[in-house]
Amino acid sequence: MPFHDQMVEVFRAVFDNPELTVEDHMTSEHIPAWDSVRHINLVFQVEQRFGIRFTTAELARLQCVGDLKDCVAKKIQIPFPS
Predict the structure, then answer these.
(1) Tens-place pLDDT, residues 5-15
(2) pTM for the predicted model, two decimal places
(3) How many independent structural domains does the chain possess?
(4) Does the residue 34 lie in any domain?
């Protein structure tokens, strides 16, 4: 399954929305259900899905979905976007 599709699956599960569209430019402002608790859950679920751990510094630099995808792609050593 393509990397982007895997990320979309995580977002859809965390936000309990099987129809959620996820684009690189999106931020928490684009998804009404994206609150602090779901943010923590999103980070945890991404870490679990891809077998990675984020540093505090990495998390502080994330501004949008594209930043998250780029960080994950670097950690799992795939070219972004995929």
Answers:
(1) 999 999 999 99
(2) 0.91
(3) 1
(4) no
